[in-house]
Amino acid sequence: MPIRVPEPLIPVFLKVTRANRAFVSEAGAQQRIRERALRPEPYGPPTRLEGVSVDRRLPNPLGWPVYDVVPADRAQHGEGQASVVVYVHGGGWVNEIRIQHWQLTARVARESRQRVVVPIYPLVPFGTAREVRDGVVELVRAELDAGNEVRLAGDSAGGQIALSVALELRNLGIVLPSTLLLSPALDLTWKNPRIDAVQPSDPWLGRPGGRVLAEAWRGADPIESPVVSPLFGDMAGLGPLTVLTGTRDILNPDAQLLRTKVRAAGGQMAWHEAEGQLHVYALLPTAAGKQGMRTIVQSLQPTDALP
User: Fold this and answer.
1) Residue 74's pLDDT is what?
2) What class has domain 7-43+51-299?
3) Residue 214 has pLDDT above 60, yes or no
4) What does the domain layout of the chain look like in residue ranges?
5) 8: pLDDT confidence band, cut at 50, 70 and 90?
């Protein structure tokens, strides 16, 4: 069972448990990369997820583990799925999928009546931004080729990947009906001067470690390439976006820049900014988290709900 922490104590809990260790210093980020190289984390789903069935795709041409989270009654009756969600988990490009991500995918599957596809992509020090971007593009295109309508979602580092994927799909002439970004990482240069104003109130993320992780993640690509930092991409013709961001998150200033760029390009964005909330607040067991979760599920509903 996840640990329940009263909302006012969550920042203290994050610091005491050193959840921010990989971000607050360069040494912490380098140590986390070494740890992951030596001891990769488990990634499988929990034994029980309410109201869904989880299957792993074998064989899988990507070479990564890919899971399908399906509403239980549809799995039992073998009903086809006309609409799917591809969800890319966060974790700073170095941490594996967490139980909160699995719980989110299960809730989206149950309440939107869709199959949720969960790729377990290679992390630093084994994976790079381009490799993962291209792999998720391939995954989305395979679903489209099978006749399915696809929605895309990601949180934090997964939000970076999701938006980079949406940009590449747009370049290929593919526009998705919905892309959901929860507290996305958008500019891996970490140069936005407004970060300095937010940093004292953010108990989780930090520039020093973030820059180390970004440098490892970019591979051979320039840090300002949209493959790595999607904020530098052309936002025209992307299709509808939904962004959730908290004001106590150092990624919030870049999310605001994204909103400006999308609207200047004539794009459509549903903007949900939660005052006083932390990074990926919709995954936290708080009142604001519950509201954020409802927003996520609603934004990923298929155009015509399946019967």
Assistant:
1) 72
2) alpha beta
3) yes
4) 7-43+51-299
5) low
Which pTM was predicted? 0.93
DSSP the chain: -PPP--GGGHHHHHHHTTTTHHHH-HHHHHHHHHHHHHSPPP-PPPS--TTEEEEE-SS-TTSS-EEEEEEHHHHHHT---SEEEEEE--STTTS---HHHHHHHHHHHHHHT-EEEEE-PPPTTT--HHHHHHHHHHHHHHHHHTT-EEEEEEETHHHHHHHHHHHHHHHTT---S-EEEES----TT---TTHHHHGGG-SS--HHHHHHHHHHHTTTS-TTSTTT-GGGS--TT---EEEEEETTSTTHHHHHHHHHHHHHTT--EEEEEETT--TTGGGSSSHHHHHHHHHHHHHT--SS---
Banded model confidence at residue 10, pLDDT cuts 50, 70, 90: low
